[in-house]
Design a protein that fits this description.
This protein has two helices and four strands, in the order αββαββ. The protein has about 70 residues and is α+β, with helices and mostly antiparallel strands. The protein has one domain.
Amino acid sequence: MVKKGIIEEIFSKAIYADDSLKYVVTYRDFEHYKKINLKDFVTLSENFQLIPISRIIKIQKGDTILYQKHSE
């Protein structure tokens, strides 16, 4: 199960207290992984309505991994 609170906390900090363009979100789009900056992800996902939190694989800021989904 995805820890929704951790991801929401990262997104909130990135959007309101930092530069969201510095963050990269990797998410599963059917059978492919896509990378996009956080600001564009929020727009594209329409606040998680089209792309749910459960499809987020990794969130990075530069070389630092802030969140990574564990393989099940």
